[in-house]
User: What shape does this take?
Amino acid sequence: MKIQIPKGTFDILPYGTDDAWRLSSLWQYAEEIIRKTAFEYGYKEIRTPIYERTELFDRSVGETSDIVTKEMFSFLDKGGRPISLRPEGTASVMRSFVENHLANYGTVHKFFYIGPMFRYERPQSGRYRQHHQFGIEAIGASSPEQDAEAIDLLLQVYQRLGLKNLKVCLNSVGDATSRDNFRIALLDYLRPHFHELSADSQARFEKNPLRILDSKDPHDKELVAGSPSILNYLTPDCVRHFQELCRLLKLIHIPYVINDKIVRGLDYYNKTVFEVITEDLGAQNTLGGGGRYDGLIASFEGPDLPGIGFGTGLERVLQVMMAQGITPPKPPCTLVYFIPLGEEEKTSCFSLATECRHAHIAAEIELNTKKIQTALQNASRSGATYAVIMGSDEIAKGTVQLKNLETRHTQEVPLNVLIKTLKERHV
Ligand code: HAM
Assistant: This one.
């Protein structure tokens, strides 16, 4: 039996796929724009392991969150230690920040990461068991300007990739005091409907009722629609922070809508939370999301520094790009394809191709066929602009045929000027 790819995962290929979003050239293009943009906003790359001790996620993402209760890829390693594939990036960055004493290197720390995350979800379009996130974490600044910067950076990445028709949804989940007050009001509202709630929401009723606002169950959603608004329970400090963020977003011309039901699926948030949604993704309409997590670093026995960040799923971003008909620039490809027509020519072409590569000219060589038509087809498929054809006549004369594969124009070029000619045309 053929071995197949695990459910909910996919290959990213250089060719051979009808799903344009799975082309590696598209990923490279998007990642390049992301890195450049993150750099321009002052973010530096951090890379953490793809697996961590399970406890890290229990304590940060939250023991009652869907991610921890249902979606983690967890196992015991050979030493019997509970390990999980990372379902998200924030917890790992916090662990790394504390463990490496990065607080000693300045007052504000801005990190970005691009990498795979793992969630054991029911796979469907836009939802996978391995997905890739671009995320940022900004540690050390509590002012709303930092929140506005994070939202602006996310939108700037989307804009540079050409995405349109996006909606920014904003909310504040307040601080611990705000949430304690809101919790009482929410429980009072939900209590008469307790038996109508889904099993999951009933289990969360006492432990973490805010999670009920996040329920995917249709009936829970109906009930929650009329629930009190957390925005009416914010402390004065949280109100000020939220109002200031709204003012800053207007100042930098970022339209947003306030949605007081957004709590996000992870437990570490406080104050600002936000999501960017699109109409072009079907059911999985959240392109990216994040929020503030003041207190999280301290909970890992690190310094008591505030933080804010976001994550955006690259699969979803690329799928929206394709749905919106965005055509990325043509990826770089081979410039010249050498076609030797005999064994002696093969050696000469091999040495020429090597010389080209050493001179930064992307070169390919036909090693398998002496049939010129097949070789020319292979040359076109490689995306090469030129074919260099060498047969016994050319060897005798010390020349090659240089064929422009786009114009079909062919020119005889002396061997000793070939590299120079290619270099001139290359620039
Ligand atoms: P999240 O909302 O759980 O946040 O995930 C961020 C983004 O990852 C989502 O908006 C979505 O685009 C993508 N995503 C999540 N799960 C899947 C999946 N199964 N398949 C495809 N894409 C998916 C976080 O992970 C937080 N760590 C974000 C953050 C950073 N908050 C503060 N800092």
